[in-house]
Structure of Sodium/calcium exchanger membrane region domain-containing protein:
Amino acid sequence: MSLRYRRLAATWTVTVPILAVAVLALAWGRSIPPVVVVIAALFLASSVLAAVHHAEVIAHRVGEPFGSLVLAVAVTVIEVALILSLTVSGGPAAASLARDTVFAAVMITCNGIAGLSLLVAALRRRVAVFNAEGTGGALATVATLSTLSLVLPAFTTSKPGPAFSAPQLAFAAVASLAVYGLFVLTQAVRHREYFLPVEPGGHAADGHAGPPTTRAATASLALLLTALVAVVGLAKVESPAIESAVRAASLPQAVVGVVIALLVLLPETLAAVRAARRARVQVSLNLAFGSAMASIGLTIPTIAAASLWVEGPLLLGLDATHIVLLGLTIVVATLTVVPGRATVLQAGVHLTLLAAFLLLAVSP
């Protein structure tokens, strides 16, 4: 039975991403009927599960923190491509798209993924244990990138509106890429031990027995990228239906971006929760904070480069309400990270902040 189950899992995780991309190719750029919308939604959900499976295969082969880094960067690169295509084709209406998407990603990862992972781990083992040195460094990077890219534009005076001037935008782009690159170097090379899962006894754990072969890991990498293309592309295909539902419910247009961000971040969310269930909370936090900083560190330089040929303003500065939410998130996350241990209380506080963000997106 176990062998049959493994064969079934191997079959569907290979077939689903390929079929999902085929559905994406048929539906892309077309007005699709409700039946196709439902089919696309089913393939989107299945692709998320397939992406998580292949991400875990890769993580098993290369070990941590490389496994979580691969998933975070892969999702973000495809997400950035989607943002860029929407910005180029959206005209003036897409002036704040990059800001809204990046901020939604930061709030969902730092409060949603982190809070849910801490809740799962704390409910199973009373206390969620992780490495404060590595997680603290990741949080500091997220805080710096968020402030430089999303908060400062609301206060600069060189250009009207919550926007950078050309030199300021160039600095933010270079600084974001440099700081993110420095973090990756620290995480993957110089201080890799700070980002390894912590066992109940307090020692770092690196890997486990029976890793897959290089050939299997390479195949999973290709299928992971295929699944992520399907996830992000089908999220875009679903966006007209989401927009129609938002208009019918008389909700703000920003809700569309939040819903799409939630869909795109589903692979990381499921992977983080599954890691937390196995007491590998550090992996969950690597995914949460790694996805947040990758979203900023890769999106801002890309959008800055695109602004050279895309006409219209690029609005990056957050409004006062979102600045307060971001500041509170950073303070709460700092208090959560410093001890290297968290309970259900800390998890509940983070999830409350996510609920506040979602509520204010629906009712600003």
Remarks:
- The chain has twelve helices and two strands.
- The domain at 72-204+237-362 is CATH 1.20.1420.30 (A middle domain of Talin 1).
